[in-house]
Amino acid sequence: MKREFSEVFLLLNEFGKVKFQILKNELEAFHVHPGQIPMLFIISKNPGISQIEIAEKLKVFPSTVAIMIKRMEKVGLIKREKNEKDKRELKVFLTEKANNLIDKILGKLKIFEKESLKNFSEEEIETLKNLLNKMLKNLEAMKNDETI
Predict the structure, then answer these.
(1) Using 50, 70 and 90 to split pLDDT, how confident is the model at 95?
(2) What's this model's pTM, rounded to 2 decimal places?
(3) How many C-beta atoms lie closer than 10 Å to residue 52's C-beta?
């Protein structure tokens, strides 16, 4: 069977767009953007984390994190406090509002995952995970300019 070069990537891209639209609609009531979810979970697991550490964990530029933090602070999801040891550094914490939302967001994500995979057998899910991990390793190797 002959396949178009970009078919897999088109499907992955379409999956990403549909996933984003669904999560955006589901999380709108919480004033949470789908792109903010990873940051919420990182801060939840690492209270007092610095913006630079968040950027490293998200693999984005610190300036991107700064913009996200300002937006999240504006809607009352996070707060920043000066580091007592280094006044130039800000520590980032979830607010009580965000802490109360974490379980609700996780619930929405679990429903999304369950619905996404509802017609898959356990074996198919395991195969999908293995294939996606393989693809990720190939892309990481490309990113790091290694031989695939």
Answers:
(1) very high
(2) 0.78
(3) 12
